[in-house]
Amino acid sequence: MELPGLILVGLAIAAGIIGTIIQLYPGLPIILIAIGVWAGFTGTATAWLIFAAVAAVVVLAYVLSFLLPARMMRDEGTPWSALTAGIVLAFIGFFVIPVIGMPIGFVVGVYLAELVRLKNPAAAWRQTMIALKGVLLSVIIELAAGAICAGLWVLGLILTS
């Protein structure tokens, strides 16, 4: 792959890493596709091995980013109904207040659902903080996976040059 193509792949990986942080678009699939394009153009067994390793990291990250926060929230007593309300209001918030509306909507949704369920503002806020910690854990897992994938790509560049 020529230098302009490598730069584009690198930019796509950087955009994917940003996507894992801001959660407005699917960052890990962008990274996976970019490295797949690189592997396709490079065409070596090493490049495809790097792509396979990246695919495994992405799959593992998505499994962990769902299971670990869900278990943490379940252990702390946050019901699925509160998380569902948070997701619905996050979606609405995204369109009502661009960029910052999503996290605001999530917090408001979880808090209101828990306030209705628990009828105690302090307890509802505690459950909201637990849900936010779960979301943060998910973001950290995806960010770490994105960084690992970027590192694997750099390793692939070194091994195939």
Automatic annotation (TrEMBL):
Instruction: Kindly indicate where the leader peptide sits in this chain.
Output: none
Record flagged with keyword Nucleotidyltransferase: no
Q: Which residues cross the membrane?
A: 6-35, 47-68, 80-113, 134-159
Keywords in alphabetical order, please: Membrane, Transmembrane, Transmembrane helix
Give the protein's recorded name.
DUF456 domain-containing protein
* Organism encoding this protein: Flaviflexus equikiangi
Starting at the broadest rank, the lineage of the source organism is: Bacteria, Bacillati, Actinomycetota, Actinomycetes, Actinomycetales
